[in-house]
């Protein structure tokens, strides 16, 4: 009797582990979409900019769908839409909103790169660009990553200026501290030298060795006359 119960418990445990595995699998091995480290990009009008996007899928993919959307305060549009048949093929573009946009990169050789290049940038191109990927092999899970593009008339090196100012201030403060330390040391040195000289004078004039207590001149001065 207790044996049957044990077997039942073991089976239940197996079942539990299996279910847990099924539950965890899509979470730990799911599709990931990345636009790289910089989530904000600035570019100058009239130039071109690459908006990076890569994805990874541990399951592999088949008939994967991808698209880029654009969203600003007053507009939402799909910029480019396409599919990738499998891991050995390059993406096929099905829809393209603008001639200034081209799909760059490759999905062959595990590059999984679906970056787009935007040319002849206009100020109105400023906005949020989202790269979406949907993998039918993974329950049609959809993943996305967003990058903010700001079109400017010239790149201001604000960050550099700020860094330089901070560096200059920090450098200045450190320099000042070192200078103060040096001055202090120098002054202490001068004082010591003067006192040593004074002491020497006192010692030689009194003809008495009172350096043993290491006291500065003032005390020695008091003592000296009594002995002379
Ligand atoms: C960028 O915009 C500025 C200001 O509107 C303009 O003077 C300049 O010619 C533009 N640059 C290009 C390359 O279009
Ligand atoms: C576009 O962005 C706005 C503001 O961030 C947001 O409220 C809106 O839901 C977005 N639209 C779409 C379709 O994603
Ligand atoms: C994606 O492809 C573009 C164009 O070939 C390239 O410049 C970029 O470095 C690639 N990105 C990655 C992460 O490989």
UniProtKB/TrEMBL annotation:
Pfam families: V-set
Position of the signal peptide: 1-30
Membrane topology: Single-pass type I membrane protein
Transmembrane segments: 162-183
UniProt superkingdom: Eukaryota
Comp. bias (Basic and acidic residues): 219-228
Keywords for the protein's UniProt record, in alphabetical order: Disulfide bond, Glycoprotein, Immunoglobulin domain, Ion channel, Ion transport, Membrane, Signal, Transmembrane, Transmembrane helix, Transport
GO BP, sorted A to Z: cardiac muscle cell action potential involved in contraction; regulation of ventricular cardiac muscle cell membrane repolarization
Cellular compartment(s): Membrane
PROSITE patterns xref list: IG_LIKE (PS50835)
A GO MF term: transmembrane transporter binding
Domain Ig-like: 26-148
Compositionally biased residues, Polar residues: 203-213
Keyword Transmembrane: yes
GO cellular component, one term: voltage-gated sodium channel complex
Main location: membrane
Region (Disordered): 198-228
PANTHER family xref list: MYELIN P0 RELATED (PTHR13869), SODIUM CHANNEL SUBUNIT BETA-4 (PTHR13869:SF14)
Official protein name in the record: Sodium channel regulatory subunit beta-4
Gene encoding the protein: SCN4B
